[in-house]
Design a protein that fits this description.
alpha/beta; formyl-coa transferase, domain 3; 2 domains; three-stranded antiparallel β-sheet; about 15% strand
């Protein structure tokens, strides 16, 4: 559903894959008219990212991150099609782009050129690396950024396997897309006050480094360092979901009182009552012993039994679900997170809701994820009417 906070805002989207499209999808969910520019015959590479597509070029990931948008097919190497882009940008509010700067200059789509024809334009440049640093001209993808930010060394710290590994998610792309979205919204707010457009640079490397190093800079926060990098609680090898008799459950024990309550509900309050666990710093010093004993106790309960006991004791807990089970989650279904819709070419599919809800506004259904160039004639006709 669209929550129309940005009704009347037009976004020209010259981005591909996830970083930029995630930003513009958020803007579309908030009511902006997002026009996605795609190369004829090829389109966004993310269209072809999975075999699960029913129609070639309509991969599930592409559908998820491009709902609410209109697609126009334009070949930017052709003068006539570049002219269409410039016409679109003359009265646009936002231009979101992830093409590298030198190519944009050759196309006449750099900030200075566009500012000359539309001083109110907000120009959001999604780049791999900040353009003032030595990596400025390098390409960036999620794997590259996970490696460069040390993220690939987190799992080895947890399980002792020294092989660097990726977190199995396009997490750097998505985090950077969120940074681009809030940057765009802040620039729109500034323009409401000043009437002026603005250039924004959103570098993926810096965005994700900020995200990951928030807790993991650790002892290097201080000069000289006074402890290792890494947030100890997050990389503790035994801080994992607890086994149950029929699965596993995540339990968060965040306070002194929670430890007492948990051992009580597990039927062994005498264990946590031992003196070594009740001197100052004792539970932190003996954390490994506590976790190991907990895994012995939790095996005596089913997941459902343990979750109910934790809820009754006001201890945060959730069962470990398989990735394929999330779509059936009762809470997500109660709040309408997964909406079943009928796409004209793809048939029945599930759309994920914008998680931020606004009061006092009437929602409306989002546009369906577009076929390549689906709205080309419609958008060209709108331009013709404006001229």
């Amino acid at each position: 559903m669209v929550q129309p906070q940005l009704d009347g805002i037009r976004v020209i989207d010259l981005t591909t894959v996830v970083f930029g499209p995630y930003c513009t999808q958020i803007l579309a969910d908030l009511g902006a008219d997002v026009i996605k520019i795609e190369q004829p015959g090829v389109g966004d590479a993310f269209r072809w990212s999975a075999e699960a597509a029913k129609t070639p070029g309509m991969a599930p990931g592409f559908m998820a991150v491009n709902r609410g948008k209109r697609s126009i097919a334009l070949d930017l190497k052709q003068e006539a099609d570049r002219a269409v882009v410039l016409d679109l940008l003359r009265d646009a509010d936002l231009f979101v782009v992830n093409v590298r700067g030198k190519a944009l200059e050759r196309l006449g789509l750099d900030y200075d050129s566009l500012h000359a024809i539309n001083p109110r334009l907000i120009y959001v440049h999604c780049v791999g690396f900040g353009q003032q640093g030595p990596y400025a001209d390098l390409q960036a993808y999620d794997d590259v950024i996970q490696a460069a930010t040390g993220t690939t060394t987190l799992l080895p710290r947890v399980d002792g396997d020294p092989r660097p590994r990726y977190l199995p998610s396009l997490i750097a792309d998505k985090v950077s897309g969120l940074h681009a979205a809030y940057g765009a919204l802040a620039a729109l707010f500034r323009r409401e006050r000043s009437g002026e457009g603005q250039f924004l640079e959103v570098p993926m490397f810096e965005s994700f480094a900020s995200f990951m190093m928030l807790e993991h800079l650790g002892g290097q926060t201080f000069d000289p360092p006074n402890a290792p990098v890494g947030y100890p609680r997050q990389i503790h090898p035994l801080r994992q979901p607890f086994p149950t008799s029929d699965g596993a459950i995540a339990i968060v024990i965040y306070s002194h009182e929670a430890w007492d309550k948990l051992f009580d509900l597990l039927g062994d309050p005498a264990f946590i009552a031992q003196e070594r666990f009740n001197v100052k710093g004792g539970r932190a010093a003996h954390q490994d012993e506590l976790f190991i004993h907990l895994t012995e106790l939790t095996r005596n309960f089913t997941t459902a039994e343990l979750q109910q006991r934790c809820e009754d004791a006001d201890i945060p807990a959730q069962p470990v679900r398989d990735l394929g089970e999330v779509i059936a989650d009762p809470h997500l279904n109660a709040v309408g997170f997964f909406a079943r819709r009928e796409h004209p070419s793809e048939g029945a599919y599930f759309e994920q809701a914008q998680p931020v809800r606004f009061g006092g506004v009437a929602e409306r259904p989002a546009r369906m994820p577009p076929l390549l160039g689906e709205h080309s004639d419609e958008i060209r006709a709108e331009l013709a009417r404006r001229t």
